[in-house]
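R.M. (postdoc): so does anyone remember the format we settled on? I'll just put the structure tokens first.
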């Protein structure tokens, strides 16, 4: 019998075990952020009293992101992932959230389509060793009184008020958040977080190719010689060309999908997303 309950901090070892099975990049800090932002929208599937699966939601105003859909490899093929997803969607519907989004792997996409999700656009995870970065005097650390500008840039690119997420990232790694300043005006921002396999660079949001290249190069310089991941919209040709020029290669494709009201975002401004968890 499958029983779905709310996830708590006591389930962190389960989350870490399942993400390790799947070969994902999340750390315990990522899981704690999921719980902090998701509150009562994070769930565990128990089978005969044994925890075997997870999923989580994060609500940004009228948009809900679904993430961390994981099932113990010994219990796959029993419909547990589907039940977890249905439960998460019922949670969002109960809160009257009109839009649900997620980034799907090729393996997960058929399930999400059956649940009413449709494809919006494609991304790819780029991976490699950070090399070739260069310093630029226009790239500067983001200070506290510039945080509103960071949030405004992010909202323009994503169509989503992700201020709560950005506050977490700034609090966790303030030194990683940087701005590109042109004529005294912030025209792009970038940040990153540490993973168990690689540093996840992103989000990177810019209004110009020069700002995008400079912020991305600055990130490579900061994490020189370390493994890095970036999740980039395929239709952002400048970002894709930059990644290839720096020796990064495609690890896997992702499909951004939506259920319900569409989101008016700008993937051409998104050089690197936060990651599959929250776009």
């Amino acid at each position: 019998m499958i029983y779905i309950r709310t996830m708590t901090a006591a389930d962190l070892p389960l989350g870490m075990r399942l993400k390790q099975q799947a070969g994902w990049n999340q750390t315990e800090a990522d899981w704690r952020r999921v719980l902090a932002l998701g509150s009562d929208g994070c769930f565990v599937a128990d089978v005969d009293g044994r925890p075997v699966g997870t999923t989580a939601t994060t609500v940004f105003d009228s948009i809900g992101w679904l993430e961390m859909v994981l099932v113990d490899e010994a219990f796959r093929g029993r419909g547990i992932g589907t039940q977890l997803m249905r439960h998460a969607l019922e949670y969002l519907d109960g809160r009257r959230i009109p839009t649900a989004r997620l980034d799907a792997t090729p393996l997960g996409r058929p399930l999400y389509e059956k649940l009413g999700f449709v494809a919006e656009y494609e991304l790819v995870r780029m991976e490699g060793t950070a090399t070739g970065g260069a310093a630029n005097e226009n790239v500067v650390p983001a200070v506290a009184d510039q945080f509103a500008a960071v949030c405004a840039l992010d909202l323009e690119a994503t169509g989503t008020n992700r201020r709560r997420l950005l506050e977490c990232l700034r609090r966790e790694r303030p030194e990683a958040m940087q701005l590109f300043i042109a004529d005294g005006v912030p025209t792009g921002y970038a940040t990153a977080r540490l993973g168990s396999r690689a540093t996840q660079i992103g989000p990177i949001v810019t209004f110009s190719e020069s700002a995008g290249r400079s912020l991305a190069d600055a990130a490579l310089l900061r994490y020189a010689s370390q493994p890095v991941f970036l999740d980039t919209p395929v239709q952002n040709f400048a970002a894709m060309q930059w990644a290839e020029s720096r020796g990064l290669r495609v690890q896997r494709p992702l499909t951004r999908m939506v259920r319900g009201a569409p989101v008016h975002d700008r993937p051409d401004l998104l050089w690197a997303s936060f990651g599959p968890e929250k776009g």
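R.M.: ...and that's the designed sequence above, right after the tokens. Also worth knowing: The CA atoms of residues 59 and 142 lie 26 Å apart. The chain has a mean pLDDT of 96.
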